[in-house]
Amino acid sequence: MSTTAHTAEHLPVVIVGAGQAGLSVSWYLGRAGVEHLVVESATPTHAWADSRWDNFTLVTPNWHCRLPGYAYDGPDPDGFMTRDEVVEWLAGWLDTFTPPVRDHTTVTRLRRTGDAGFELTLTDADGDVTVTCDQVVIATGGYPLPVIPTYAGSLNSEVAQIHSEQYFNPEQLPDGAVLVVGSGQSGTQIAEDLHLAGRDVHLAIGNAPRVARFYRGRDCMTWLADMGLYDTPAQEYPGGKAAQEKTNHYVTGRDGGRDVDLRQFAAEGMHLYGTLTDGKDSTLRFAPTLTSSLDKADSVYNSICSDIDRHIEANGIDAPPPSRYEPTWHADADPTELDLAAAGITSIIWAIGFRPDYRWIEASAFDGGGRPMQTRGVTQVPGLSFIGLPWMHTWGSGRFLGVDRDARHIADTIVAALGESHLRLASGQ
Fold first, then answer.
1. Which in 67, 69, 296, 420 has the greatest CB count within 10 A?
2. d(Cα 371, Cα 15) in Å, to the nearest integer?
3. Which domain of life is it from (predicted)?
4. CB-CB neighbours of 153 under 10 Å
5. Please, are residues 204 and 276 in contact by the beta-carbon 8 Å criterion?
């Protein structure tokens, strides 16, 4: 894909970030004839190739994959694309239009200029350039900084430590047992990857829920889509803010898709622990939460199945009979301590998430936790918008399924705010 370097000092719109979210806004602005620039620190959509492990697969069915003017049309809509297939699919999308991207350029400062407009400092290999714009869209991803606990530095230096975004395959790790910390989607799938490769795996789990891969003849996420869960506005979603703050349900699309059953892994030899709370040298300490965490995850699993049952019954859908998950393994006791050396653990993978980093933005648009205060991506700072955030509008926000709708809304808002003779985009859904 060709890139376009702008020398103009002022532009109507600057989009920071050329992932699928930022480029989706660009697609709509280009269709509306709005001059704009997309600034990308690496290359467009690079994170899919650079930050996913070798055996990564989507956890959402392929039919969820929709971007402006482009949707998955391959032979397996109910399957799950691998990392390399996603990279190829995105490359096909980028072949359908030419966004004005300035790559290998970082926005190191963004500030308001008077009553309206913004000034951005763009830094590349040749130095700094300043541009101004009327509207700016932040599409850098919701949580760019990997979280590693403060006590990690006090652990035995002979134990290798990496974050989940740095993991690619078992072979990159030293011989010996591996501790994975975190039971969200990345943690459980990386633990499975290591387990299937024959590694001795220890897994510290948190409060992440789980979901069935398939239930009553269909993928659970297809049922949930039919039930409208991915289209429900955040303000109306059952459970409110508390539900939105929870870690995503763990499940996998590997080998055609299946449940992630930590109890079964334990029966096969994986070592499970509750929440990791502290550590020093070769000693780690855990809260006695293993049993309760497994029970809660299974409860959510069965609760979602019950919701699907009610949907099937209410709509008279012909489907296979209902069922419930019954535990096949129980911990004898909740472990509270682990000696890394005694267990032969030579590496730790931290899979405990990411945190926001908007320190380069000088605008009053963030809450006490550093997260943008926004409604459907639009902030109270005139001209400042965000795209690609989890729960920006619905559960589908931040995923392929919701990007198109969110981008249309942001682009429509921008076109209206510019007040020029551009065709107003239909708000849609």
1. 67
2. 18
3. Bacteria
4. 9
5. yes
Closest C-alpha to 298, from 243, 366, 351, 249 = 249
SS3 345: strand
Q: Do domains 10-144+356-418 and 145-354 have the same CATH topology?
A: yes
Is this structure's pTM higher than 0.70? Answer: yes
Summarised one tens digit per residue, pLDDT across range 187-226 is 999 999 999 999 999 999 999 999 999 999 999 999 999 9
Inter-residue contact 315 to 222 (CB < 8 Å): no
Beta strands in 4-116 (DSSP E): 10-16, 36-39, 66-67, 70-71, 101-102, 106-112
* pLDDT tens string 79-89: 999 999 999 99
Which residues, at least 6 apart from 363, have a Cβ–Cβ distance to it below 8 Å? 110, 111, 112, 379, 381, 384
For β-strands 345-350 and 177-181, DSSP reports them as parallel
| Contact indicator for 121, 108 with CB cutoff of 8 Å | yes
Tell me how far apart the alpha carbons of residues 101 and 130 are, in angstroms, rounded to a whole number: 16
- Residue ranges of E strands in 216-268: 218-219
- CA–CA separation, 303 vs 322, rounded Å? 12
Structure tokens at 156: 């035995």
Pairwise CA distance, residues 111 & 180, whole Å: 40
Are the C-beta atoms of 252 and 127 separated by less than 8 Å? Answer: no
Backbone angles phi, psi at 283, to 5 degrees: -110, 125
Nearest to 260 by CA among 299, 301, 231: 301
Q: Enumerate the domain spans of the chain.
A: 10-144+356-418, 145-354
Nearest to 141 by CA among 226, 214, 59, 50: 50
At the fourth CATH level, the homologous superfamily of domain 10-144+356-418 is FAD/NAD(P)-binding domain (3.50.50.60)
β-bridge mates for residue 348, sequence order: 161, 179
pLDDT of 426 over the 70 cut: no
CATH architecture of the domain with range 145-354: 3-Layer(bba) Sandwich (3.50)
- Quote the CA–CA distance of 78 and 62 in Å, as a whole number: 6
Question: Which token pair is 376?
Answer: 């459907």
- pLDDT of res. 143: 74
Tokens of 268: 């096969």
